[in-house]
Amino acid sequence: MKASHLALSFGASKLYRDCSFHFEAQDKVGVVGVNGAGKSTLFQVILGRQALDEGEIELPALRLAYLPQEIKLSRTVAQQSVWDYIASGRPVDELQDKLNLEYEKYAKYPESQAILARINDLQDLIDSYDIANADHELLKLVDRMGLDDLVDKKMGELSGGQKSKVAFARVLFENAGLLLLDEPTNHLDASTKQFVSNFLRNYRGMVLVISHDVEFLDVVTNKTLFLNKTTHRMKTYHGNYSEFRRLYAAEMAEQSKRINLQEREIQRIQEFVLRARNAKRSNTALIRQGHVREKMLEKKLAQLELREAPRAHVSIDFKMNHLGSKTPLELQNVSFCYPGMPPLYDGLSFQLRRGERLLICGENGIGKSTLLKLIVGQLEAQAGSVIIGNNTEIAYYAQELEVLDERRTVFENVRSYDYSDTEMRGILANYLFEGQDIEKRVSVLSPGEKARLALCKILCEGANLVVLDEPTNHFDPITQKTIGENFRDFPGTLILVSHNPDFVEQIGIDRMLVLERTASELPPKATLKNYSHELLEYYYYLNSELV
Questions:
Q1: Residue 542 burial by Cβ neighbours in a 10 Å radius (0-12, 13-18, 19+)
Q2: Which of 19, 161, 289, 514 could anchor a disulfide with 6, C-beta 3.0 to 4.6 Å?
Q3: Alpha-carbon gap, residue 162 to 193, rounded angstroms
Q4: Smallest Cα–Cα separation from 180: which of 147, 139, 148, 209?
């Protein structure tokens, strides 16, 4: 793959400026940069879905497979079984039917070179799917990615995390020459991530992966493509993410030294020019030298390198409208199941004290997100009660960011009677939306930018009970750390679903609701445990084996 002199702007906002790169057929490339730098847009350019202003990308004659960060299913796909959906990644039967039709045509018109060319192309495509090993590889993927219990379910019945895992399995099964993976580890447990990491590291094709998972990038990648949001340039570094960080830090240190020298030289020339301007008219030699130095100063200023501005970080200022009830939430014998499905809970009971932090964990599909939707009132239990305490106000950060209206602008999504427009602009600036950014439609934002906006929207509500469903999925490590530090100091009550152990430990969990299912238990057993150092180790175990 070769990119030459790429340029792209959206209105007055420049994304790429004269960018070029080159990758070999077996390269595993980490695509990194801050949110909004254009990582996901680059994938759209490669896929041919986004036109460039200038430049071009030359792709070899190979098949592309793409895993988007946000999985959206058509009505037809939603009705497919998981098995059929993954298997459709290699549509061999469909291609074989087409090939047979071409052979029938060729029998009637044996002199047609066009038919013969189509036959050869179809045969090459079928061969690329490695039919002999397809069934074995499909079974292996289903087993190693923990999808055995899902194969007969319809795609539309899956949770967000399950859909992401199944879509990832389909992409891996496609056996394409180029994989484009956008945040592929968001919903993977530790054991599945290890399998996928080994799979990709030994993959015979090219892989481009956008990820904020440093450990994953270090294991999988041998090159790093850095998209610089400040300069709108791209640069390729040889090595994994950690090597990139080392090389980039060294570059920045060298750049700082050069700029310091340039600035000192400019200051020295400016002082000389000022002295020459203030010289007596009789001192013609000094005045003449001053004119020479003025021209030199203009040249030096034009050549002065720009320092990269320090990266801005999200700043969260919590506001609670009321202190809230001493018991903000209580579940009494709650039972729930989706139509035609086995029960998720039967007689689930627990209560929260004001200021507690509760972590809900368990395997994908066991009902974590459903439980959150019951708590916030988006779903209704078939039996039992969800009791919200007096003066308890709930803010809900949904895993799939449903709180946002993609047809509206950033500003329209958060506009509130509780704040003046000026105050709201200031709050948005804390979440890194400034200037013309607030007039962008949400539909054009990157997933990371949408996540920031969703967080801003719910925290502006002044709630004293905050419910978070996988809040770190779309954030880079620095933003994750910032959010974790802020939520540790949140004075209200917190309910959290997360498979990110570092984030969980940072927040400071008080208790943990563990949803577990064994072969003999349906619905799953729910156990409420007080948090401790031993429980943290237990959570790591659960995250590795179940999540």
A1: buried
A2: 19
A3: 14
A4: 209
Q: Exposure of 521 by Cβ count < 10 A (0-12 exposed, 13-18 middle, 19+ buried)?
A: exposed
Cα torsion 480, 32, 213, 151: sign: positive
The tokens describing 244, both together, are 């990139």
Domain boundaries, the chain: 246-303, 329-545
pLDDT computed for residue 546 by the predictor: 40
Q: Rounded to 10 degrees, what is the CA torsion of 458, 425, 447, 147?
A: -10
Fold adopted by 329-545: Rossmann fold (3.40.50)
Q: Give the Cα separation of 208 and 178 in Å (integer).
A: 8
Q: What SS3 state is found at 12?
A: coil
* Residue (of 166, 145, 183, 173) closest to 30 by Cα position: 183
Strands 329-336 and 383-388: antiparallel
Model's pTM, two decimal places? 0.73
Residue 68 has pLDDT above 70, yes or no: yes
Q: Which residue type sits at 216? A: F
| 465 φψ region: left (φ > 0), alpha (ψ -120 to 50), beta (else) | beta
* pLDDT tens for each residue of 478-533: 778 888 888 888 889 999 988 777 788 888 888 888 887 765 557 777 777 776 65
C-alpha distances out from residue 415 to 222, 409, 420, 431, Å: 45, 10, 8, 14
pLDDT at 532: 60
How many Cα atoms within 13 Å fall on the side-chain side of residue 303? Answer: 12
Q: Residue 300: CA atoms inside 13 Å, Cβ hemisphere, count?
A: 19
Distance CA(315)–CA(81), nearest Å, equals: 43
